[in-house]
Amino acid sequence: MKKIFAVLLASLAVLTAGAQALPTKFEVKIKAKDHVQGMAIDTAARCFYLSFTTSLVKTDYEGNVLASIDSIFGHLGAMTFDAASRKLYASLECKDDVIGQGIAKHLGKEAVSQDLSKFYIMVFDVDGGQARPGAGNPVIAGQWEVSEAINDYKVRYGCSGIDGVTIAPQIGKKKGKPRLYVAYGVYGDISRRDNDHQILLEYKLDAFKPGVTAPKASAKYFVFTGNTTWGVQNLCYDSKTGCIFMACYSGKKPEFPNFSLFAVPVAQKPVKKVLRGLEDDGEHLSLALWQQGLLGSVKGVRGWRFSDASTGVCTLGDGTWFVSTPLKLRGKMQTATVRQIHWKGGPQENPFE
Questions:
Q1: Which one of 164, 188, 314, 336 has the fewest CB atoms closer than 10 angstroms to its CB?
Q2: Are the C-beta atoms of 342 and 352 separated by less than 8 Å?
Q3: Is residue 21 part of a domain?
Q4: Cα–chain-centroid distance for residue 260?
Q5: Of 246, 237, 260, 224, the residue nearest 316 (C-alpha)
Q6: Structural domain contains residue 42
Q7: Residue 8: is its pLDDT beyond 60?
Q8: Rounded to an integer, what distance in angstroms lies between the CA atom of residue 283 and that of residue 272?
Q9: Which residue in 34, 40, 143 sits closest to 92, CA to CA?
Q10: Measured between alpha carbons, how far is 281 from 275 in angstroms, rounded to an integer?
Q11: pLDDT mean across residues, the chain
Q12: Which phi and psi angles does 107 have, rounded to 5°?
């Protein structure tokens, strides 16, 4: 009995030490023009990856910068880490609108034209080809065009490009390999009706391979949320709730509740139907929101008013989440404050504690 009790105590000590090893809060300071856009955690290497629009930064759990890839031409946005392949997936926009023009100015380059505006999934080898996790520095493994978003840009759905990315189980399937989900950015134009859905593209992970320029999405889903400002900024799959969370800047259309955080259960079966605001566009695959948040003024629209996830979010799947929020400093420095939060859910403004 004493031996069993000793083993239990030892196991508890290991679990406690592991929990204590995770940071509760730290700051990352870099010389940059633009704020933090996205983040991912790598528990095997005990580090974080953060995007600062034109830079990818690798830090330890204290916020010390270990490595970076700088002067990336375009808007490097949200990111997600695949622990199995040890690859980091991120969205990249190279476009002609106000965001693209501002980035080009910061980098001292000429902005691209609308005809040449393109959107990519960038993949980074976080170990730089080294066998041991964390032994090397991140290197670019490749980039692939997101042709669906390129075709829709400034033409329909209020598409402004792409931003949020996450890896999650295949929607509507009990079995199958994980998929990469990519969210459209959506202009916050209150005068149009075709921009009240969030759009998610689904890709097989092995679609991003050498010799392929623009892999074909295996599905395109529409989620009715009401209009947001710039669409989904960050996606995050949480295995504890079984949902893909969509973090946004809240919209301004007065007929909607204008939440900034929504959740989509992955176990649901998509429904093909004609959508509100897209009546002349035929049928589309539609996904319903998780009915666990605040009840909005429009049927089916539920969510939360939690904006901190819009500039970086990741989860461990046990109720532990991390968010990164920006704070501009003097002297051309940018700071990302990374803090640990915990999911509590429910119909309230802030679902975290």
A1: 188
A2: yes
A3: no
A4: 14
A5: 237
A6: yes
A7: no
A8: 6
A9: 143
A10: 8
A11: 92
A12: -90, -5
Domain assignment of residue 315, yes or no: yes
d(CA 48, CA 32): 18
Q: Regarding beta strands 219-224 and 283-287, do their DSSP bridges make them parallel or antiparallel, or are they unpaired?
A: parallel
pLDDT reported for residue 174: 86
Pick from 316, 324, 323, 327: nearest CA to 352: 323
Give the type of residue at 132: R
- Tell me whether residue 183 is in a domain: yes
Number of domains in the chain: 1
Q: Which two tokens stand for residue 39?
A: 């983040």
67-92: per-residue pLDDT in tens?
999 999 999 999 999 999 999 999 99
| Residue numbers of the domain that contains 300 | 28-342
Residues in the chain: 353
Is residue 1 pLDDT above 70, yes or no?
A: no
Three-state secondary structure call for residue 233: strand
User: Which domain CATH number covers 163?
Assistant: 2.115.10
- Per-residue pLDDT tens digits for 193-232: 999 999 999 999 999 999 999 999 999 999 999 999 999 9
